[in-house]
Amino acid sequence: GLVPHKGCCLGCHQDPNSMAGEPRHVVILGGGVSGLAAAHYCQTEFGDAVKVTLLEASNTFGGWCQTEPRVSACPAAFLERGPRSFRAANGDPTFRLVHELGMEEELMPANRSMCGSRFVFLGGRLVRLGLVSALRYIGIINIVREMFVPKRTHSEDEDESVDAWAHRRFGGGLATLLSAMLTGVYAGDSATLSVQSVLPILVQYERDYGSLVLGGLWSMCSGLVSGVISRLTAVLQQLMGRPPTPVAAVDRFVAHCKRQTLAYSFRRGIGCLAQRLAERVRTAGGADLLLNCKATHLELPGPGPGPVLVHAQDRDHNPLSFQADHVISTLPAYALAEVLDRSVLAAAPHTVLADCSAALWSIPFQSVAVVGLCLRSPEGCPVLPEHQGFGYLIPQTEGQPILGTLMESLTFPSAQPKEITRLTVMMKPPGPINNRTWPHEQPLDHLISLVHGAMHKHLGLCFAKGQSAAGMSFSVLWTQILLHNHCIPQYT
Ligand SMILES: Cc1cc2nc3c(=O)[nH]c(=O)nc-3n(C[C@H](O)[C@H](O)[C@H](O)COP(=O)(O)OP(=O)(O)OC[C@H]3O[C@@H](n4cnc5c(N)ncnc54)[C@H](O)[C@@H]3O)c2cc1C
Fold this sequence. Notes:
Catalyzes the 6-electron oxidation of protoporphyrinogen-IX to form protoporphyrin-IX. With 492 residues, the protein is α+β, with helices and mostly antiparallel strands.
């Protein structure tokens, strides 16, 4: 989700609330959406009891959560650098944040039917993925059989890849579908991603119920029962003339958002969430948000409580330092590992830090290209109606040059005029993940021709002729390519 919880806290361990007198100094490393959210929640939870300093290495806040400036030829269309939407089902923390920031009007609901219409590229064609087609693809016999597959206990030392887990319990059908799904979330390979790390619910159901099917049935039934009980309680309260339990405005807002549709974005792009967070933290007072300020190393006093000295440098490499009671890191794993490595060198040897940094370095990161296509077609979207929806994902086994395509203008029709179609294609560098980056001189023409080839094959859009399989003509308003290195962690 967009309000991550991955930050790790270094330094002394007292509750800032419990400390009388001087405000506690919290230094936050990283000004992406996690760092900004951490600063915001420090302020709202602890008020004057804390002073926050946030250090961001780049010249802008938001990290991956940024919207590229609108292209002047087409003012209604923009390109998201990283995230472009979030799911309503697990969006509670994001909705609450939106409410706290007064951004309710900026929230942009997805078209429900388009959002529910998702495809997988299987056997050389797009297949709409509904519950029935998914069950059929997995195989009813495999689903029944899964309830009798002996359970296996997972531990930190005994892990399994998602692909191996799916093959062991259900066979190849589910393995292929999960491969497509993880392409969408991690741009990763289900044969290497750890099932415990990326889909812990599968492991939890196997451990607790002996089977995913039994666990799923059990939680469905208990959900139904608790729904019925809460309805009955409300009806009884009404019959007895008792006023209904008051619901806070924020809870009403969250419930409304979750009922309304399946996914959301923001009218001016998702980057506005990070920008608004930064504004709010600044105006709330008691916080310094520093751009162009790169954390370099920490001086820790020792294993016990005590202040931490955070060293950083500004744009001109001038050294800066901050004495912190608490340090919250929201840096990507490799950036924190670099900081910890230097910390070990700067201070006395500290095995805990060395172990942490080794663990952080061991997390590979995937590089991704985001290719934005903006098409104009006076007759509307040139994609065949039967292929219109949220987009499609491609399992590794299909051997395609792209990971998948998002049909953003169909998902968010209010973001641009009807004649504009926005598609976003995701790609990764060829070969295994292995921390591969895009070559310095990556020929962009080559990427564009791969994308055009894929669009022709998958969606029937012929860019050479400006004609679609639906018989519509279209022109390309702009193509924008963003090459991101080391942007998505792979928990293998
Ligand atoms: C292409 C792409 C598509 C995505 N799509 C979605 C989506 O659709 N939905 C969704 O929910 N999520 C999506 N995500 C994931 C989402 O973007 C991330 O989970 C989220 O943005 C992470 O935010 P963060 O603040 O934790 O980290 P980051 O955004 O990585 O921020 C870390 C910050 O730390 C700064 N930094 C680094 N080193 C230092 C240092 N030494 N000192 C100080 N600062 C430093 C960086 O400059 C950066 O600003 C996507 C990600 C990518 C890359």
